[in-house]
Amino acid sequence: MLEPKSRPDLKLNRRRTQALYRQIAEQIKSRIASGELPGGTRLPPIRTLAAELGVTRLTVQNAYRELQAEGLIEATVGRGTFVGPETHPSLLHLHLGERLTPMGVLHDVHKVQQVRGVRNLALASPDPHLFPTEEFWASLEALHPQGSEVFQYGPVIGDPHLRLAISGLLAQRGLEAPAEEVLITVGGLQGLALTARVLCQPGDEVVIEQPTYLGFLNILHTLKLRPLPVPLDEQGPSLRHLEALLKKHRPRFYYTLPNFHNPTGMCFAPERRQALVDLAIRYGLTLVEDDTYAHLAYDMPPPPPLRALDRSHVLYLSSFSKVLMPGLRIGFVLAPSKLLEGLLALHSASDICGPPLLLQRATARFIQQGGLERHLRRVVPIYRERRDTLLDALRAQMPRSVRWTRPKGGFSCWLSLPAYFPPGALYQAALQRGVAITPGEAFLTQTQDHTHMRLCFGYQGSEALREGVAQLAPLMREQAARLTHIPPIAEVL
């Protein structure tokens, strides 16, 4: 075994909300990714590192345990702890980035999770290390006496306990949501797919925002629906463009993300929200409101949902994948009664009962006993700090030609720069430097004069965010230096 450096230079910040063991693990992980700690490097013994950092041995042990679980280090009794064999990030381009379609990028985002030593700024998901696993396990264990019930098929509309818990959650946000109008789905994406199928036939037109959630673009492509894009400004969708589309076309619905939009992170202004609902009423348009990120608000409480402004023209859907744990695969739809019957029919045709009844019942118990509220109180400050870390790093390192949004919630930040790169080139170049981004092409239906990318800050810690930006910024400067003319920057959200 090589031992090029056995003393990583680690610094702990006890004022941060992040646990000390996570700071240790994150910094070691970053040094592995950068090559500062190559494969075979011996790490300090637990007792030694604990003494150097002034922490308990358990703190270092937890950090090492986390790194070992991710396959980054290997511990051998009697020999010590070593950095595992290398996987060079430059090899990524052989397997990733071959297709910039929404489906291709969705596949890439999840494949990157399996690649060692990559700073993953592509995944708009919560940090697994922040999952409330212990408290949720307690909810599962409390259901042991109900085993003969919760391991059966459940109602196709969903567990009544969970529907009641969701009704209570929505009431806290000013939304009248009777439990009998709530349909439980296998994640938010199934809710979107069911909605598109019940409202549309192949060839129908659907209004979307530009940019918009790539998962929904994949649904439109699969169902052979035609997107009608509406541009966004800093207040929300352009009402002038939207009304022009409504006069010329007969779209089946408008898919919108008014709270902490994915991929921009923006939040629609109150006046724009009301005007959007007014247009829907005037033209008989159904609004499909995706409110998945509503609880992840960093600067102020999120505004009430659009459905609180009008019940008859707004179909509301959300999910627990971002605010709790994606592996639960629990989403829900709140639909006008005239649509709920059709959604139920399609749901039962493809899935006899939705998510496992055990997980539905445990999630209901978790919510009703205050677990979700406690979890959000703990993690929202951490995600806010990561948002601020990303923005600080962008301000400090990116060239002036690059612009970005300031997310008010959620996990996404949208960057825009002049057309320095051919399609896909920035994605590939970033991967070769060991940074995974989401290419902007996957969120757009129309060609633009700018290169875009989405950076996500929920999945990675502050150290990885800073170093990821440090790797991306030189790419922009190097490419800009090769060009003799820089096109003007368009207005950014």
What can you tell me about this protein's structure?
This protein is of the alpha/beta class and 493 residues long. It has 16 helices and 17 strands. It has helices at 20-34, 46-53, 57-69, 102-112, 133-142, 147-150, 160-171, 187-199, 214-222, 239-248, 270-283, 337-350, 357-368, 371-397, 425-432, 462-482; strands at residues 42-43, 73-76, 80-83, 119-120, 182-185, 205-210, 226-233, 236-237, 254-256, 287-290, 314-319, 331-334, 403-404, 412-418, 435-436, 438-439, 450-456. The strands form five sheets. A five-stranded mixed β-sheet has the order 5-12-11-10-9, sandwiched between helices. 46% of the residues are buried.
What topology emerges from the helices and strands here?
Blueprint: H1 20-34, E1 42-43, H2 46-53, H3 57-69, E2 73-76, E3 80-83, H4 102-112, E4 119-120, H5 133-142, H6 147-150, H7 160-171, E5 182-185, H8 187-199, E6 205-210, H9 214-222, E7 226-233, E8 236-237, H10 239-248, E9 254-256, H11 270-283, E10 287-290, E11 314-319, E12 331-334, H12 337-350, H13 357-368, H14 371-397, E13 403-404, E14 412-418, H15 425-432, E15 435-436, E16 438-439, E17 450-456, H16 462-482
Helix pairs in contact: 1-3, 1-16, 2-3, 4-9, 5-13, 7-13, 8-9, 8-12, 14-16
Task: List the keywords.
five-stranded mixed β-sheet, alpha/beta, disordered C terminus, four-stranded antiparallel β-sheet, 14% strand, 493 residues
